[in-house]
């Protein structure tokens, strides 16, 4: 080096991801964390799907004859009060954005492919596995259970939600675009259906969507102001969640009291509605806090893959429970619960990313094979083709979310 020249700066070489890192990136599609997305949506979906997994792992342990502490059973009861309404409200919030960008026929086709098609395919798969593994599982299935797919989805473990959301979406689209029902008219229709739903419980393909149509309508109705800067500021305010938490806890305990004091565990629908909305608002504030703190990012990964976890987690949970009890001799209920939740939530994500998306098993979630759009083994893998639409409703001014 000649005199007077500055020394050459030697930057340390950036090592390429090793095989384990590449596998992890691919298996969990962690590139989603680097995308410009509404992170709070994925946080909300992640919270909701984790509570769904909690419920079904817990029920599997209970049905196998093992006793869990009462606190875990009570938590499951309380989570029920807002878990599924949250999914429907979230779906309703983004429906107007879809209407503004796509034709009615196209939206219905997308919803069929994303919801009803996986429902049919995976309910058949799960029933078949449960019949074949009858000696190892808690579900006493027979050939008659296949007929439940058409009219009684509530008998098929977790699957009732998919046709309920599909039916709610399609009927809402038709009433909004053809009958021109908007705002309070949709809320009124939702209330009528909500209070009539118990009379149709003999056919849950009807009662399920009737019960939750109201929450879908609430989601779309609030979307006109939800994304406004002042509302977003309220949700992001660091004092919002602490103020809501005491109300949330009180209403959850009240719901638990109502549930346990009723002979048939049938909580008054009016009270359930109020408690559910308080729970959904609190979870929304929590999601915004998590987004601001940028912590527990695994919830975003789970939320991004919530559909795939939803359809596969019961199979995964049963498999994990059988292996832990029969092979490893683990019979401690709490250990089975937490190990089961962790694996039942992550195994479907791994299966989807390694064996289904852009792979020969693509037909398990879509009607036609999508063009490969991911670079294997990199942290910037593209989103699964079945990811629900997260468009912001047209005409709404919203603060642009930070790059993630």
Topology overview:
Blueprint: H1 19-28, H2 39-63, H3 70-79, H4 83-93, H5 95-101, H6 104-132, H7 148-151, H8 161-177, H9 184-196, H10 204-226, H11 229-236, H12 240-261, H13 269-293, H14 298-304, H15 306-327, H16 333-356
Helix pairs in contact: 2-3, 2-4, 2-13, 2-14, 2-15, 2-16, 3-12, 4-10, 4-13, 6-8, 6-15, 8-10, 9-10, 12-13, 15-16
Give your account of this protein's structure.
The protein has helices at residues 19-28, 39-63, 70-79, 83-93, 95-101, 104-132, 148-151, 161-177, 184-196, 204-226, 229-236, 240-261, 269-293, 298-304, 306-327, 333-356. By secondary structure, the protein is mostly helical. Helix 2 (39-63) runs parallel beside helix 15 (306-327).
List low-confidence stretches. Answer: 375-404
Q: What's the number of extended β-strand segments? A: 0
Could you give the order of the helices and strands? HHHHHHHHHHHHHHHH
In whole angstroms, the N-to-C terminal distance is: 43 Å
Q: Round the mean pLDDT to the nearest integer and report it.
A: 88
Gross geometry: globular
State the helix count: 16
Please, how many domains? 1
For the largest beta-sheet, the strand count, sense and barrel status come to: none
The class by helix and strand makeup works out as mainly alpha
**Strand residue content:** under 5%
Q: What percent of the residues sit in helical stretches (DSSP H or I)?
A: 55-70%
> Nearest-angstrom radius of gyration?
23 Å
